[in-house]
Amino acid sequence: MNSNQVQVVSEKKFNIRLDYCSSWGMASRVNLAKTILTAAFPNAEFTSGKVDKLNAFEIYVIDANGKETLVHSKLNGDGYLDNNSATSVIKKIQEVI
């Protein structure tokens, strides 16, 4: 599935935070994740930032009450968000929102 094939799943407003290590090459992975998730959740607001965890690539959903839920973590074995893993991450986000 690529970002052109992702359908709008929800128009709810909520926040998605992308945390990633400062290694070279992460910007393109973050941009791909934002592109995929924006296609599915056009009203989501994104924040992102570098963290001091080597090889980190984590996606959190923050609900209206400020509760953060980790929905994807390379450190936990999920890998990077890409076209192949998009469906499962989108489903996890739907469950949280």
β-strand number: 4
Oligomer: single chain
Order of helices and strands: EHEEEH
* Low-pLDDT windows of residues: none
Shape, principal axes of CA atoms = globular
Note the beta-strand portion: 25-35%
Largest sheet: 4 strands, mixed
Number of helices: 2
Can you give the helix content as a percent range?
Answer: 25-40%
Spatial strand order of the main sheet? 2-1-3-4
Describe what this molecule looks like in 3D:
This protein has helices spanning 26-40, 86-96, and strands spanning 15-21, 45-51, 57-62, 68-73. It is of the alpha+beta class and 97 residues long.
What keywords describe this structure?
97 residues, alpha+beta, 4-stranded mixed β-sheet, 2 helices, 4 strands, 27% strand, globular
Concise structural overview:
The chain is α+β, with helices and mostly antiparallel strands and 97 residues long.
What is the fold's blueprint, element by element?
Blueprint: E1 15-21, H1 26-40, E2 45-51, E3 57-62, E4 68-73, H2 86-96
Parallel strand pairs: 1-2
Antiparallel strand pairs: 1-3, 3-4
